[in-house]
Write a structure and sequence with these properties.
Structural class: alpha/beta
Low-confidence stretches: 1-6, 8-45
Distance between the termini: 26 Å
Strand content: 15-25%
Number of strands: 12
Number of helices: 6
Shape: globular
Helix content: 10-25%
C-alpha cells in the first residue's frame, strides 16, 4: 500500500481566480482542459528546481527558523518563505480541509449516489469532485489563486497534497481524473514560474513527463520501500520525510547519498513542543 499521509496541516482558503492561456503556454491545441488567463508571472526567469541532496526541513505544521544545515524548506501556504532558502509552498489541492468545506461550492464536493459528501475519514476532509473537465477547471481556478499567493510571497515551488485522493474515493474518482487535474495544476504553477512537486502516490510517478511534475515530496518512502520509485522517476530530485527512526535508517541506508531526507514528528510540530523531532541521522 502507498504511504498514508500522517501530518497535521494548517492553511486558509483562497478565493477563485482564472487560468486561461495555459494550453498555449504548454504548447497544446484546443481541448477540454483549457483555463482562463493567469496573472502575470512574478519574473521572466525559468522555473527553478530544488537542489539535489540538500539539507531539508518539513515545516507545514508551523514555520520556525531553519537549522544551519537546511537549504530546502516546505511550509504551509499561510506562512512566508524562509529568506535565502529554496521554499516549497504546501497546498491541499485535492481535498477540502474541515474548516474550509463550507466555502466550496456544493457541487465541487465529491458526492456518492445518495448525494452524501465523500470524506477522507482520517482527516475529516471532503474530497473535491474532479470527474469532469468543467469541474477540474473550476477546482483549478481556486487552487490556482493559492498558487498565485505562493508566487507573490516569493516561494519557489508548490506541493499540492492528496494526489492519491482517488484511492479513497470509493471508486468515484480514477487515476486518470487525478492526472488530468494535476496536469492543469502543473501548467498553472509553471505559468507563475513555480516548480511543482508530486506528493506521494508512487504508483503514478512514472507519468511525470505527461503531467509536467518537476520533483517529488515523499512521505515514508524509506518505511514503505518506495524511495527508489521516486528517485528513478525524478532523477534523484526528491525530498523525503520519515516519521520513525526505522524509516529514517532505511532511507539513509539506501539513498542517504542521493536524496534530501529528514526525520520529523508526525504532528510536524515546532521547536519547544513536547512532540518536536527533527533529525537527519
Amino acid at each position: 500500500m502507498p504511504p498514508v499521509k500522517r501530518v497535521l496541516r494548517t492553511g486558509v482558503l483562497g478565493t477563485a481566480t482564472t487560468l486561461a492561456g495555459l494550453l498555449a503556454l504548454a504548447g497544446c491545441g484546443a481541448g477540454e482542459e483549457t483555463s482562463a488567463s493567469p496573472k502575470p508571472a512574478r519574473t521572466a526567469t525559468a522555473v527553478r528546481l530544488p537542489p539535489l541532496h540538500a539539507g531539508f526541513d518539513y515545516q507545514i505544521g508551523g514555520a520556525y527558523p531553519p537549522a544551519a544545515d537546511v537549504r530546502v524548506v516546505s511550509r504551509d501556504r499561510s506562512s512566508s518563505p524562509a529568506r535565502g532558502l529554496y521554499n516549497i509552498c504546501y497546498v491541499n489541492a485535492f481535498q477540502a480541509q474541515p474548516e474550509e468545506r463550507g466555502q466550496w461550492p456544493a457541487d465541487l464536493l465529491l458526492r456518492d449516489a445518495d448525494g452524501k459528501v465523500v470524506v477522507d475519514k482520517d482527516w475529516n476532509e471532503a474530497l473535491l469532485d474532479i470527474r469532469t473537465p468543467d469541474k477540474r477547471r473550476r477546482v483549478a481556478e481556486r487552487v490556482g489563486r493559492w498558487f498565485d499567493d505562493c508566487a507573490d510571497k516569493g516561494f519557489d515551488a508548490v506541493e499540492p497534497d492528496n494526489y492519491d485522493s482517488y484511492t479513497r474515493s470509493r471508486n468515484l474518482l480514477t487515476s486518470d481524473d487525478a492526472t488530468a487535474f494535476i496536469t492543469l495544476l502543473a501548467r498553472r504553477a509553471h505559468a507563475r514560474h513555480l516548480a511543482i512537486g508530486q506528493k506521494n502516490t508512487a504508483e503514478l510517478a512514472g507519468l511525470r513527463s505527461r503531467t509536467g511534475l518537476d520533483f517529488a515530496v515523499a512521505e515514508e518512502c524509506g518505511e514503505y520501500d518506495e524511495c527508489g520509485t521516486y528517485a528513478k522517476a525524478f532523477h534523484d530530485r526528491v525530498v523525503v520525510i520519515e516519521y520513525t527512526d526505522g524509516g529514517l535508517r532505511k532511507a539513509r541506508a539506501a539513498f542517504g547519498g542521493r536524496l534530501s531526507i529528514v526525520r520529523r514528528d508526525v504532528k510536524v510540530s515546532t521547536p519547544g513542543s513536547a512532540d518536536y523531532v527533527r533529525r537527519t541521522r
